[in-house]
Amino acid sequence: MSSLTRLWLDDNLFSGALPAELWNLVKLVEFSARNNRFSGSIPDNMERMKALVSLDLSGNSLSGHIPNSIGAATELGFLVLPKNVLTGPLPREIGNCSKLQVLEASFNSLAGPLPDELGNLSSLTSLSLEKNHMSGSIPSTFGLLTELDTLNLGYNQMSGELPPQLGNITGLRELYLGSNEFDGRIPSHLCNSKKLTTISLNQNNFSGTLHATFKDCISLTTLEIEGNRLYGSIPDYLSELPLLSLMIGENQFSGDIPESLWNISTLLSFHAANNALTGSLSMSIGQMRALENLHLEGNRLDGLLPPEIVLLSNLTILSLHGNEFYGPIPAELFNCTRLTTVDLGNNNFSGSIPVEISKLEVLSSLVLSRNYLTGSMPERICHSFVDNTISDSIFMQHLGVLDISNNLLSGSIPEQIGDCSGVVELHLSNNQLTGNIPSSISKISGLVKLDLSENLLSGSIPYQFGELSRLQGLSLGFNQLVGGIPAELGNIKSLVLLNLTSNELGGPIPDSLGRLTGLTMLDLSNNKLEGELPLSFQNITSIVGIHLWSNQLSGSISNMFSESVIWREMQSLDLGRNLFSGPLPSVLGNISGLSYLDLHSNGFEGPIPSSLTKLSQLTYLDLSSNHLTGLVPSHFCDLQEIVYFNVSKNELVGELSGAGSCGNQSVNLHGIAGLCGNKAYAKCIQDFQGSSLSKAAIFGITMGTIMAFSCLLFVLIKWKMLKEDTLLSRMIETSKLNKSLDSASFAVSSRFKEPLSINVAMFAQPLVRLTLSDLLMATDNFSKANIIGDGGFGTVYKATLPDGRNVAIKKLGYGSSQQGNREFLAEMETLGKLHHKNLVPLLGYCSFGEEKLLVYEYMENGSLDFWLHNKSGSMDTLDWPKRMKIAMGAARGLAFLHHGFIPHVIHRDMKSSNILLDSEFEPKVADFGLARLVSASDSHVSTHIAGTFGYIPPEYGQSWRATRRGDVFSFGVVLMELITGKEPTGLDYKELEVANLVDWVKHMVSLGQTEDLFDPIISRPAWTPQVLQVLNVALACTSEDPFKRPTMLQVVNHLKDIECLS
């Protein structure tokens, strides 16, 4: 063995520590043990390894420092250490290895600055330290590495400006410095190397223009500079370079795309999304004959799509979302038959959808929503959406999406839509579609979401929908559907949301719906349903909302709401305007989470149960227009959350004081004979026999009359003062009916100058005083081009304030505008007091008419959802240490909401898109409290589910007043996303009976295939112990029994313990 010169142990299962005796093999020239399971440190006794030329220990679990004695191996030419868990600095002694040609230590946890001594490695051709924790700047001594061919320092924490000495490396071919914190201008001397083919500087803080920066890079084929602070115009000289990939998105480039750029015949990928580009697409676009990916979303581009786009025969991805393009969609576009993804959503396209779309044989995602498209749906609009043609494109967040909602489409839904077997989400809502719903939709076996609401559809609901075994959301509301509700819908065990509101459905409610034990929201309101409530509804104990108002339902509700059933999660019960009769069951008072109770306009009789006064969460109570008798329980005034209270048009007597919530101006007690109090003006009856008026009663009536007269006088005086504001509000209300004003709903006439001067209430001392006018200017009148997010609670705009600061402005959705201003201000003051490192700070707010704006701190790196599922090349960025950091920080933020603030705050919509990341990937929880803000504003609480269905716990839905246990479940789903890299729902789970991430993870664990769950990016042996422990936490969080889930404080403690694992 002492004469051994070469030892290869590659690709085996060797484990344990490397024996120190290896370094006694003084004649050893080459030692390779890559892709094993060795652990422990590299022995620090390499002084005798004078002959060693090549050392490859990559792909193991080696830890500790790179030994200083490495400098004694003076013949060393190749040192290959990637994919271990090495820590500490790069030793200075490595500079003694003057013959070193290759130094690779990527995918470790090395830290500290790069030693100047690396400049001594005059023979070095490749230096790769990607994905470590290196800090500091690039040493100027790197200019001495004249033989260097490849320099890869990407995904570290390095900073400072690039040294001019890099221009001395005249043989450099590939430069990777992405995902660091470098700043300053990009130096043009990088192009001193005429061999340079690849420059990757993405996700840094570089600023300035590109005036002549890359002009001399005559061999450049790949330029990646997205995610910086670059501005100015796109330079013409780029067209003179032999570029294959040009990625300049997420900067501040403005102006037109140069005409010359379209002449780059070699270009394969052009990413210029999320800038401020203007102008139209040139007819010269057809010169880019090789182009495969074109991303221009999130700019201010307008004009017609040029027919020359047909010449892009290799195009696979076209994303123009969120611009201002108009005119018809050119039929020529669909001669680009290799297209897999087409996203033209949120523009101003008009005309019909070309029938030529059927030429796209490999299309897997089509988004045309939020335009002005007319005509009928092409019969073969999605015939290519079949399981075996789904693209591997990392661009689309959701493969299998067909979204043509929010247009002006008419005609019937083609029967051929059933051939689109690869569709996962089908969105046709908010159009003018007519005719019957095709039963062929039932053949789309992987369908998860189906939304046909707000059309003019007629006929009956196809009973075949019962075959959609993976369906989680079914929305058919606001149509003209007739007939009965098919009993077969009870077979869809995965169903979470069923919304059939505002149709003409008749007959009884099928008893089979009681089999939908996972249902959280049921809305059958405003139909012609009759009969009694099915007793089987007692099985849906996890339901959050039941909305059956305005039907012809009858009978007693006492059997359904009996002592034997515990409705732990119910938040909303609306049975108003029906024919129910009998007494009100006292068990209603046991539904502790009930916040909305509407039983008005029925035939209920008997007394109001005193148990209703125990509903401490109650905000809305309407028992009006029944036959209720007896005393009104006096403790109703003790309900602190109540904002609407109507027991009028009954036969009630008694006395209510003006104290507590009964002094609230929203409380309605009008028309009640016999009640005293703040709003009672009728005579007061002390008992059932009708005794004479007492002095107190007379005094109360007199004072009430005086108060009424005073209020009337006050209203008359204020009427003229408020006249202009009222007119302004009406203008805004009218603008909501016009989709063309969607991006300019704050555009008001110059005669209304005062509202524009309304101050923005700021929680922290601002650098400048802000007004509504400032926000309008900062967002270019809420232009579509500034949209950076669009969720269930409203649209988010990026804004640059007068002092140069970037902020995010959330324009709340219409539902929140119905909320009283006093309640809104109270909510804002509460949310503004929430300060924590891992919460997105609410900086201020503005309430103007029916519009409500929230000003947040801007998060440079967007959402976790974007990085996990949508951002090109981002998965490599999210190594396990970053994911662990995100999990830990998000847990702390949510734990603070649950336990660190009084009153406790329930998030209600926890998901990966609500975890935002700052420039250092520090996570901050966003949108906390907004679900309550929106839901509390509606008279009839919305049954829309916020966010992706896969986050909804079994016992409630996201858009309702929820529980902390529900937040914990949603957080567990986020942990599973971090571990698997997969989305909560989708085609990935088609082999399971229920299509969601939680069930798939539990299924795989039950089969003993735990490590097969891991995202390949984090499948390193060194990380496996931590990943497994986090998986255990995720499984505990997603327990079906909410009472078995840990609290967020316990989750934080578990994650702290896991962080300590080596």
Automatic annotation (TrEMBL):
The EC number(s) this enzyme carries: 2.7.11.1
Pfam families xrefs: LRR_1 (PF00560), LRR_8 (PF13855), PK_Tyr_Ser-Thr (PF07714)
One cellular-component annotation, GO: membrane
Top-level taxon: Eukaryota
Membrane-related topology note: Single-pass type I membrane protein
Alphabetically ordered keywords of this record: ATP-binding, Glycoprotein, Kinase, Leucine-rich repeat, Membrane, Nucleotide-binding, Receptor, Repeat, Serine/threonine-protein kinase, Signal, Transferase, Transmembrane, Transmembrane helix
Annotated Protein kinase domain residues: 782-1057
GO molecular function terms attached to this record: ATP binding; protein serine/threonine kinase activity
Catalytic activity: L-threonyl-[protein] + ATP = O-phospho-L-threonyl-[protein] + ADP + H(+); L-seryl-[protein] + ATP = O-phospho-L-seryl-[protein] + ADP + H(+)
Bilayer-spanning residue ranges: 696-717
InterPro entries per record: Kinase-like_dom_sf, Leu-rich_rpt, Leu-rich_rpt_typical-subtyp, LRR_dom_sf, Prot_kinase_dom, Protein_kinase_ATP_BS, Ser-Thr/Tyr_kinase_cat_dom, Ser/Thr_kinase_AS
UniProt binding sites for ATP: K811
Compartment(s) where it occurs, according to its Swiss-Prot or TrEMBL record: Membrane
Name of the featured protein: non-specific serine/threonine protein kinase
Species assigned in the record: Ceratopteris richardii (Triangle waterfern)
